[in-house]
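yo

u said u wanted the structure for the complex thing, so here. seqs first:
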Amino acid sequence: MKLVTAIIKPFKLDDVKAALTDIGVQGMTISEVRGFGRQRGHTEVYRGAEYTVDFVPKVRVEVLADDGDAERVAAAITDAARTGKIGDGKVWVMPLDGVTRIRTGEMGDDAL
Amino acid sequence: MLVAAAKIDAGDTAWVLAAAALVLFMTPGLAFFYGGMVRGKNVLGMLMQNVFCMGLVSVLWAFFVFSLAFGKDHGGVIGGFDLVGLKGLFSGTIPGLQALTIPALAFVAFQMMFAIITPALITGATADRMRFGGWVLFLALWSILVYAPVAHWVFAPTGWLFKRGALDFAGGTVVHINAGIAALAVVLVLGRRQGWPREAMPPHNLPFTLLGMGILWFGWFGFNAGSALAANRTAVQAFMNTHMAAAAAMLGWLVVERIKDGKATTLGAASGAVAGLVAITPCSGYVGGTSPIWIGFIAGVVCFLAIQLKFRIGYDDSLDVVGVHLVGGVIGSLLLGLFADVKVNSAGRNGAFFGGGAHLLGEQFIAVFSVLAFTFAVSWVLAKVVDATVGLRVTRDEELEGLDLTQHAEAAYSFGELGSIGRI
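structre next:
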């Protein structure tokens, strides 16, 4: 089992959700986060005073997948979230020790 | 000498009462205009410093500040105590204003709303760091020792600047220059905010600021057109001038902002409109034609440039009260010396562009500098007195935590925190 985590541009969330749904992903969790990478924030100007906002809003998407699907999930997110401009974000895949579905108590791949 | 009171006119009275209500509405409008520009931890502190003026200044006004401003004259400098508690004003008259076609109390109510919003304007400069208790004491002292005399000089027919022939239709000197220079004096006593100008202090809610600007613009029709104290041609001209100046100033501000900073901003649109409203205030009942458009446009451009001064000179005027109200008020008061036209208002006189020569401009200079000097000096002393007694400024830790929690034990934005009943 794998945990696929992606940091994406907020306005790309709908595209990513549609792409994941299309390949059969049944659930995902998102959170609103802030961060920066090579994009290094953005500049705002108020009455001539310039401020650099270092941590810009991003959306974190988390999807559980079995070992065979994880790469496909990561690839779907990468395709859907890409604009080609700086600040598109990252996707990473991590191994999981265990998963339990709380309602039924099912464990492992059955819980996905 | 007893002068027979003029006959009360129903239309005039209805308009002045409606205008008074419009001017009152400007104070919560101003609160939101400013409140949007501060950080989220200080927004209630800002709103409170503004709406509190509606409470304290109103009561002081009825007890004796109105009498000091408009009561029996003493040397053109200050009114007397004859109208304390608004004594006899249900059916009586106000010295020098017997020709008004509205009941004296309508004038009392209308002028009260000006006395409320004028000190409220100061709070933009002192944002984020003033103790609430210090503001309460300063507000009371300033209303009595600064607002009352300056209103007497300019608005009372017996005041020395009024008698010299300086023109101020709705409060360029009394309201805007007065509040703007007081703001500068208090800021110099108060000092800079922690971290200014190194740290970013961006506005937390610009939609509030735009909403506040809209309320101000709307209320300003009462401020300026109501200052005709009658429902007549002068009121209509003032109404049009108010609108045109705000519109042109928005354009003026945005044009230079777009050229200098690369983008036309919503904060710029709101700020420009307010700068135009400020500048047209003294002129509103004395100019006509396209004059308000030029006055507004000039104010929009110059005020945009003026707000950069604080960074050059190093005073922390948080929300640009000096750059917008002081500079805008001076621009309007002086431009009136050029654009005034007696064809619009026979009670005025011609400015330099309308064949009046430099005489009016000279009187305008005298009025502007008199208010600048008097108000700066007294406001500075009052701020020092408040600082030495109840304290003008919050502690460093309180400032970092924010005024909302430390001054009022409230939070503006609650997202369902977990809590329980009672104190810690």
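The radius of gyration of chain B is 21 Å. Chain B has a mean pLDDT of 95.
cya
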